[in-house]
Design goal:
The protein is mainly α. It is built from 4 helices and 2 strands; from the N terminus they run ααββαα. A two-stranded antiparallel sheet has the order 1-2. β1 and β2 (47-48) form a beta hairpin. It is rod-shaped and about 75 Å long. Keywords: Cytoplasm, Nucleus. It is found in: Cytoplasm; Nucleus. InterPro entries: MBS1/2-like (IPR045230), SERF-like_N (IPR007513), ZNF706/At2g23090_sf (IPR026939). Residues 14-31, 52-62 have a biased composition (Basic and acidic residues).
Length: 74
């Protein structure tokens, strides 16, 4: 176990390392989640992450509306 001067130096080094990690790691969870939602329903404007989910949503929520062209191949 380090004592005295070694302990102080180690604490300073770890504090600097943690500050660098925190500074470089400034990501926002809401922005990342929003970026993952790439498909937008043409009827109700709700957002979906992939075409499979979008197709399921469209078939269950908007059965009378015609299927969009982007979903016909999915």
């Amino acid at each position: 176990m380090a004592r005295g001067q070694q302990k102080i130096q180690s604490q300073q080094k770890n504090a600097e390392k943690a500050a660098k990690l925190k500074k470089g790691q400034s990501h926002d969870q809401k922005k990342a989640a929003q970026a993952a939602l790439t498909y937008k329903c043409t009827v109700c404007m709700s957002q979906m992450p992939d075409p499979k989910t979008y197709k399921q949503h469209f078939e269950s929520k908007h059965p009378k509306s015609p299927l969009p062209d982007c979903l016909k191949d999915a």
